[in-house]
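User: These chains co-purify. Model them together.
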Amino acid sequence: MITSLAWKNVWRNKTRSLTVIAAVTVGVFAGVFAMAAINSSIVQRIDAAVNEELAHIQVNNKEFRSSSDIQNLIQDPATVISTLENTPGVTDITGRVIVRGIASTSAGSTGVEITGIDIQKEREMFTLSERLIPVTGSYFGSDTKLNSAFVGEKLAKELYIIRYILTSEAFQTLESKGVPAEVIEKLKPLEGERFTTEKKLTDVFTGLLSVKEIKDYGMNIKEAAWSYREGSRIILSFLDVNGHQTGAAFRICGIFRTNNDLFEAVSLFVPQDELRSMTGLEEGQYHRFIARLEEDDLTNKVTPVVREELPELEVMSWKEIQTDLAMVTDYINQIYAIFMVIILAALAFGIVNTMLMSVLERTRELGMLSAIGMNRRRVFMMIMLESVFLSIVGGFAGMAVSAVVIAITSRTGINLIKYAEGMEAFGYSANLYPTIGADFFIMLTVMIVITGILSAIYPARKALQLNPVEALRGE
Amino acid sequence: MKVVEINDVSKTYHDTEVEVKAVNGVTLNFEKGDFAVIVGPSGSGKTTLLNLIGGLDQPTGGEIIVAGHRLSELRPSELIDFRMEHVGFVFQSYNLIPVLTAAENVGFIMNLQKWPKEKRLARTNEMLESVGLSDRHNSRPSQLSGGQQQRVAVARALAPRPEFILADEPTANLDSKSAESLLDIMEKLNREERMTFIFSTHDVRVMKRARRVITLEDGIVVSDERTNHTA
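Assistant: Joint model of the two components:
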């Protein structure tokens, strides 16, 4: 009965209640959607880190990561393999041979980490092969004549393997993408000119186009001018097992593009056998083993188990390797918790205000209820339920709107291309696909109910302080 | 059978620096089935005395015993339960719950008392019929006239079968016809249910119907007369 009465009381002043409910709805939606967007960014980053860069667990010689000496091999690979294979939760393992060296072309050179991989196994374990930019070739195709290398786009740019040329094909592409003829005409003087970096191209065409044209078609122009000569070669130089300088020409079989510029700038993958033959490393010798787990949540559980089994080696989870990512994840979660508390606190003040008005307007009625025998506990419950109903209706509406918007944007994505450079420099995608777990909605529901209860305390205390004789007398 | 015993009851207010004796040494008894009115000029202490009898206020002297309960010995929470169990209130301004229907208002106290649903609904129907509103079950107070609202208030007060009904100026806001109609109903319920009614009023129409008229002046009972009126 108290529940039913409280519900009816909520709708006594529809305008006022709907205003508060609307405020709660908007507040909850803002909080949930912001969380979903932030969450998606982190989830995508973790997904990329685990599926493209690090795997869940890495096992190295304890000296390898700090010294990067080719001699710092894993001493007993068979034990590592059997340990990982027998650890519950581990689904895949593979070994890597890694040397550090210099990659160079006639136009430039840069330091790189050359990773010799088991191509077939890595294709099964990772999604990096799917990050291939299609026009650049393949992920270690079978027709490779020379030593082949799979490199990141950022590295390719630094070595000037990727250039920007507005060819006649590029102009056709622009035309097909709906770029107006007058814009194409303005760009015609640049036909055939080569730009070694994206910035150089941009600097030139911004002088030819209006601000609006740059805004509308700048990205199309850069994409159309992006140019790569298939089969480009690079020279890799490194030390062999005897400490002698060695190296070879490698043909770029494909270029990959991720959201992590740092990873792209230094990573270069070659077939393990080729690297072994050049460095003198023997079959069965490895610098690193990497393992994938059934699910990411097992990382914190499985890593210590492996570490205990392999005390002579360095066993690290992706969180320990990319401490910045783990830190950002924790940091953002904390920021979000504070953000949500602030939103709910602001809403609580609105609810307190509304409930207080409602109580003060009903002084005589509350006095009457006390007179006819409605005890303090019931009065408190009634006021509290009214407050909780206001919060819950607004909260559920906010969550429903959030769920719909998240469902839509998780398919369409949110394009933050304006901030792409900054975000991708830190490994975060500029395309967000908001996502949020059901557990978050459950937690939020609890928080909203708590907000409703806390918001009711002051108005309910006011109601309980009413003296029935005075309340009945006054109006 | 005594329903209410009032022994030398006083109520003094200490407003600012002036001491006001609203009720001063009142001794009265009310019997089962009384149809009594307390009359007197404004400020004579009628409402204060009613509040004291109903356990809404505590006396500063003397004692009130209702259905064996010494009200001065009850804690505030026990007083609320006491009111729910033993007293029916009818207020001057009806004081119905605006978001509930007539039937829900009538059933409200029985609901607080946790009557079984079927019994509660049957009693609600019975009471609405008694006050002539059996066709207004689902009407909200705002859809009823003043007289109809006061009849719902009477039905609400009587439904749980309290020891007695305290009615503070129940006809003050009603026109003549509605007031007469309401008094007819209360007389009928007094007769049929042997319900004790204690009114405070200025209204001569109520006084004419009463079988006992108690006159207060300056908080003192100056007369307590039985009349020849029969319900």
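Chain B has a mean pLDDT of 89.
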